[in-house]
Amino acid sequence: MARRTSLLAPAVPAPTPQVASDDATTPSPAPAEKPAAARTGGKRPGKYHLGAYFDPADPSAEAFRVLAARTRRSHQELLAEAIADLVAKYDAERQFGRS
Fold first, then answer.
1. How far apart are CA 19 and CA 63, in angstroms?
2. To the nearest 10°, the Cα dihedral for 45, 81, 69, 48?
3. Distance (Å, whole) CA 61 – CA 49
4. How far apart are CA 2 and CA 45, in angstroms?
């Protein structure tokens, strides 16, 4: 498995390499490690993941899978509709002062 890079890597300045001295008795320092490259966002740049984990035997999770199959809609489409309905239910626009 590949090692994950730090999210702070772009903000941390790269170490400056030391100039080798003419004195042969001092050991040379270990080469500086390259700073990690910033993550590019994967397959869906500009998007973020919103989800949850459910027990496969959970009746709600099973009903969701059946609904997706019967309506021939993706899980993403169904979740977007469900979130929109939830926001409307709680009138989030008014509650959070975004009106």
1. 66
2. 20
3. 18
4. 20
Q: Which pLDDT tens digit goes with each residue over 18-36?
A: 665 555 555 555 555 555 5
Is the pTM for the entire model greater than 0.85? no
How far does CA 94 lie from the centroid of its chain? Answer: 29
Query: Tokens representing 64?
Result: 């969701």
Q: Which residue has the tokens 């100039």?
A: 19
Of 68, 81, 72, 76, which is closest to residue 49 (Cα–Cα)?
76
